[in-house]
């Protein structure tokens, strides 16, 4: 119960269709946050059943209830907290034997539950028939079949839910406990360990966990034992070997018994489709994944277009509004803040959001269909070098287009530390905006030498990713948390587009609000710093600060103008050249250049006045600078950590300046002043 | 005895024993690989995880770790 409302918790292995069920039940009524004190994403929502509001908690996905990860600990603690009035355990009907492991691991927990056999449509296609009634009798809990893509057919699900709530149905674990008795030491442990050493967990369940060597359970149990029991306990534990294998065999034997006579035996062959053959191909697998990402990026633009239209519409309001305000006698500073800071930021963010919406949707789709797991397999060895799972390649590839999209795409990574690390290295990938200005600048300044610069940028990118992965990886993905891959490649699922779309819309709204909170203050500060009543850059605060610290920035090859453009490039890279034009040639304003309202860039003037070594330093500085303020805000949104967002930003600023320093001094050797 | 890594593509085997630390054992068990279960090798490429089929499920496994899964080859059905 939470505030007198009933709580339903969803428990299931990855690919059991848990998120789809959660999205279908709650629609837009969901909230994503963090579990208190943990970095695991917490999804909660609600729905109305018989006029009563029911809260749904989506427990983090895991393969078992062992204490191997934060996700599993949170799941266990949540069940022990007594908040859930019923737990809905999901299993995949098409792989019943394996996916009922979660149910077997749950057996012995004294919280009402019911079983949902999801993906019933897939099982039916395999010719599998499941006798639900017989299964429910054996387990003494409600059981139903569910095809998640078929939302009209939830009646049997709701019936089970009602029954679990009303009758507080507990899973019958007697047969499994009987099987455990064959394990040496189990019976002795069970007689020593009290029920409820962890609230809601029976002594049988706890004994099995002790046999499995579950540290968290042992820590709870040991202080409760009297000296004599403790001695016995230690003697038993010392003798146990490969406990998880022993209990695992009992669990699967129990599942076999459960299913005998309940499911018809269908000999299922490995489903290795043509697509699987192609995507897992030794040679063609990786190019195919990259093609999928490019296709996904292009597809992302379709849902993104309406957002861009709205954003541009908002932008178009600025000029008339500005005139009207000034005409009505409003102060230029007030008008500037309203028009150039607030409205311009909103317009900019709405345009960018389209892309976030697109990427979240397309990636969500790839995840739901089952393609993401294949990507993970194909890129496992590559990304393992960074301490990451194969999926992490996706955000990095997307970042060639847009770092904000990359950060949003990191959502598919289920471990927080790996997610933050992925975003941190994805920042090193020069985004579309960098690619739109660097080759242009380079070919203007260095002619054919531009090719060398682009190759150098790509090499530094790879080096940067390695260095960053090394520095941050140590803290974010601890050595003991780095394992080899053990992952299911699920059969392809038909996605539930409607539910996914509602979820993505909700996420986009959340992102919008959070991004606004970050961007408006930063834009405001930047606007104030670059404000000039006379139109001359020398009147801005930026100039005063810039010229004051110029002796320092000169070391990096950046005079105050270049340094100002460098700072501006961390707000938006597209604007960096415009800022230079504004400063060197007086075309437009600094702020206007950054938010994209300045007209022309005056490259000819720049060529005449900027020495080559400084230009070189500048190019490296802005390419590897903080990608842009929207990417920063998206990083904050995805990592839920202001601390890590700040650490990554400062790190990138420093790294960019170091690269500028190196580039500048190499430049001085080539083109001595 | 041979380990899982040695199993050729298309061949089948019964897992005879698994060893490793408690964490590994717990993870490998929870995905359904236990002594006595039948596995079929789907893919065994260089520089890629193994791809096997077991308990109706396609599973990708790290190669190095799979050396601790010992098997007895059986005739494929």
Query: What are the low-pLDDT stretches of chain B, counting only 5+ consecutive residues below 50?
Result: none
Strand tally of chain B: 6
Major sheet strand order of chain B: 1-6-2-3-4-5
The percentage of residues in β strands of chain A lies in: 5-15%
Structural class of chain B: alpha+beta
CATH superfamily of chain B: Ferrous iron transport protein A (FeoA)
- Lateral arrangement of strands in the main beta sheet of chain A: 2-3-4-1-5-6-7
β-sheet strand percentage of chain B: 35-45%
Shape of chain B: globular
- Global geometry of chain A: elongated
Short description:
The complex is a heterodimer of chains A (673) and B (77). By secondary structure, chain A is of the alpha/beta class.
Top keywords for this entry?
heterodimer, A: alpha/beta, Rossmann fold, Helix Hairpins, 7-stranded mixed β-sheet, 33 helices, B: 77 residues, alpha+beta, 6-stranded antiparallel β-sheet, 6 strands, globular
